[in-house]
Amino acid sequence: MNKKVVVNGMELAAYDYEHRYVTKNGKELNEISFKFPVTSEAYHDVAVLLYKDDFQVEVPEANITFEAAIKQYSTSVTNLYEKNQVGEYSLVLEEKAGAAL
């Protein structure tokens, strides 16, 4: 399923999107997993975003908003610094306990 996911103000064209709830320390927390394409032109901005690992997440069409950290992350390529490349990023974001909005 395709969705727009906004992470710290950056819109990501998400696909293979899944939302679920996980229980941690007796609290039910949001968790989303999705994939999104990253071009060599956008690589630097996305890398800077993900290194922060402190996110305000919004999924507007599902009316979901939460503060999150990366639970899992991977990419299909490592050469996005080369021109005209497109990589597939896979990301799992989990709500920070005690940070529900």
TrEMBL record:
One matching Pfam family: DUF3219
Matches recorded under Gene3D superfamilies: YkvR-like (2.40.30.80)
Domain of life: Bacteria
InterPro entries according to UniProt: DUF3219, YkvR-like_sf
Name under which the protein is recorded: DUF3219 domain-containing protein
Species assigned in the record: Terribacillus saccharophilus
